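Running log. JK asked me to keep both predictions on one page so they can be read side by side. First protein, sequence followed by its tokens:
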Amino acid sequence: MLKVQNIIKNYEGKQVLKGISFHLKQGESFGLLGPNGAGKSTLIGIMTGLIHATSGTVTIGGIDLHKETKHAQQLIGIVPQEIALYLDMSAKENLTFWGKMYGLKGEELKSRVQEILELIGLGNRANDKVKVFSGGMKRRVNIGCAILHRPKLLIMDEPTVGIDPQSRNHILETVKTLNSEGMTIIYTSHYMEEVEYLCEKIAIMDQGSFIKVGDLSELAELVGEKREIIFTIKCEQGQKDMERVCQYINEYHPLNDFMVQENQIKLFDDNPQHLLSQLIQGVTALHVQLISAEVVEPNLENVFLYFTGKKLRD
């Protein structure tokens, strides 16, 4: 359904995408993760034909996006981060407008608009102006506009930012349904649990490159048997306490996989309980107050942190 080959994008003398390649079969769901500035939005812009790549190719349903842009774009639905609606128009009017833009008309357009209104749970609010809707309702209309023309590939860029739990759940279930019906999904989010729930395949992206690609179990296996250990200390002497603890770790338990975030130290080790016991003794001997110490089992956020050393929500 989608083939991305060696996409490079240079911008103002900087290479923001460094040879991205991947492919998706029809009906696959693909999670695209990365911190702000990783290059996700640029990659999405290139995959939708809105940004020209410096080099490389994108093929959608066998159609070269660069050579036959309009033809390929007919197969794509895009849900952008920003709400792309006319606020003084009703939900029905917005859907009708975008349906016409996709080439729908007559009874087909009318029935499709009604079908989408029911799918997004706004059949009883069809004639209300979008400006009176909650953030979650607006996002549901935004999604409705993107799927009116039954796209083969749906690209969703942070579709649940800042919305209520009910709307968020409705959106996730809608995406799950569309995917089960054969629609190929590319989903970006800062909410790891959404990607875990929706996506079969996951790419971790940073600094313009794919660091790792696989399903969650494959990514966890790459981490190996390592588990995350989190120490939270009370820095009574400010940064000095943290420096003393880090010096102790470096001197007695030299590890590459540890990082400092405010008053926390995070480590990865394949024998966490043994290391935890040793470190608790060492930190106590330094007369630094330990607030908590815990071992965290691998999940998508831990895997991301292991490979990038960054919080996704930074």
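And the second, directly underneath as requested:
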Amino acid sequence: MIGRRILAAAAVLTLVGCGQSAVEADPPGVASGFPLTVHNCGRDVVIDAPPQRAVSLNQGSTEILLSLGLADRMVGTATWTDPVRENLAEADATVPKLAVNKPALETVLDADPDFVSASFSGTLGPGGVADRDQFEDLGVPSYLAPSDCVGKVSANSDGMRTEPLTMDAIYGEIRDLARIFDVSERGDALIGELQQRMEASRMSADVDVAFWFSDIRAPYFGGCCGAPGVITDTVGARNIFVDTTEEWPQVSWEVIADRDPDVLVLADLSRRTIDGDALAAKIEFLESNPVTSRLTAVQAKRYVVVNGADLNPSIRTVDGAEKLAEGLRRFGFASEH
């Protein structure tokens, strides 16, 4: 990284020494419109040229970059919660995995990145791989998903929101990253495809739904205002925790029984760190516990299975909406728009 900067400075001095003007058209190899300034999560990020050695620190960000056809400009990924989306598997296989979980800063720097992106401030921020000022001091621009900072009281994946998440935050992230990599047309095409898929999932479903992410003893359920809120709004259903402002409140099974959902959305997490991560563990508990076994959804075995990534603010939110829409049609709850 430092070596490249020294060489670049030397090249500039050589040009000036040869009588080249310091103010002229973009030099060969530099895209038009750069340097580019992108306002992101309260800071202005300056991109001198489209990145060629990007590292994405969360699965959501990785899948956006892969969807934009940028695998050849990525030198590392990290923090995976699920298998990569099937249509991206071939491209993903060409990009090194720096770590399945959160990598050390030294590991990231060893990849010699010229750009770093992330979905969550728990990864790109205090207590994460590094905070954004550290990367800036190292000359590496960074980008954090707007879904984890805009409209949130605290910038973390479980925090309270001051305003509900919408797909506009995700579309904005795609648009920003496409501009940064100078592939805006690809960004527009990806946004258009996601919008069409969301529209195809729209319906009116007179049904109460609950989203169980993980943990058996003090389970995390989807609150009103994160990705589960986007999903329920799309299919016209009711989230039984629409009255919360936390994205993932921890609740008791007695509260679940009192609200008694018609359908349970169950996250089948690839990680196996907490009781209730795996789908099989969730179903075994639901059908054997004296409280949960009496739930309407359990009695009727009305389960919609999703990946953990489908319940994060990302392009996978669209997958979650499609899976719930298909499940509600299967259970006979759907009234098409």
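Observation for JK regarding the second prediction: Residues 29 and 150 are 35 Å apart (CA to CA).
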